[in-house]
Amino acid sequence: MRLVDPVALADLGRYAGRARALDTQGAMRLQASGEVLAAWVGVLEGRGILSEGTVLGLRTFALARPARCDVVVPLGAVTDRTARPDGTGDLRVPPTRALAPWSALTPPRSGWEPGGRLPADDLARVAREGLAEVGDAVRERGAAAGFVRDRVWGREVAGVRAGGAFAAFALGFLAPGSSVTVLRSARWTRLTAPGGHVLMR
What we know:
The structure is a single chain. The protein is α+β, with helices and mostly antiparallel strands. The chain has two domains: 6-104, Roll (DNA Polymerase III, Chain A, domain 2), CATH 3.10.150; 113-195, no CATH class. Helices cover 33% and strands 33% of the residues. The chain contains five helices and eight strands.
């Protein structure tokens, strides 16, 4: 696939790098249709048959020429291919495939209803406070801190789960002083920020 320029390719690499910092063994779903590439990553895993609690990150990139692709690949393969640019926007699709349960979930493309706006700075504060709380629990309880993590990121803050704030902050979607649009569709909530989208089930 050819992105519009080397800057866009480097941007994809930074995005993959941020996602990999959250999960070194994580995956990215590369979903190209026409002249748009949707790059999905999993941030928080859902539970149960309906995968409630799932939090996904999404960024879209313009393609220089139409393409069709829908594959799930290791994040490490994406960062490797974007770390050595050749002066073009070319992305060689990694041949290795990854398993990611969240990739079977496809949020709706339409039917979203407005749910208000939130200050990006408030979401960043919620994420930083949550990270500090989870960090304290990990230091004190080690592997037993999982339930604290679930509780922290499952909290409702201004009508959205704190896990969404965490994803937007960790993936670099929040611009200081900006606002984030909240949209809802059935079981899904979407946060649309300057740098990308977070989708929560």
